Amino acid sequence: MDSDADTLRIELEPDPWHLPRCGSCQQPCSSIHEYCTRRIRDLPILGRPVLLQVRLRRLSCSRCGQRMEWVSWLQRRARLTRRLADA
Asked: Can you give the C-alpha Rg of the chain in angstroms?
């Protein structure tokens, strides 16, 4: 999809004021271990494929250890949004 000129690319950054939640226990976690970028497909807009470039945080959870943050619209390890999977 990277080479397709018709693909709509959207970059998403985490809100620095929003406390992330652990991807396993979903408890708030303030300890950020690192950031990583994931490319995720979403539903087309006006017939154009959509590719989200999402910056996710890997957290150091006191209960679970190092885990990716929980994102409500994204399943664990998924490369497409929940709504695209449902469609």
From this structure: 14
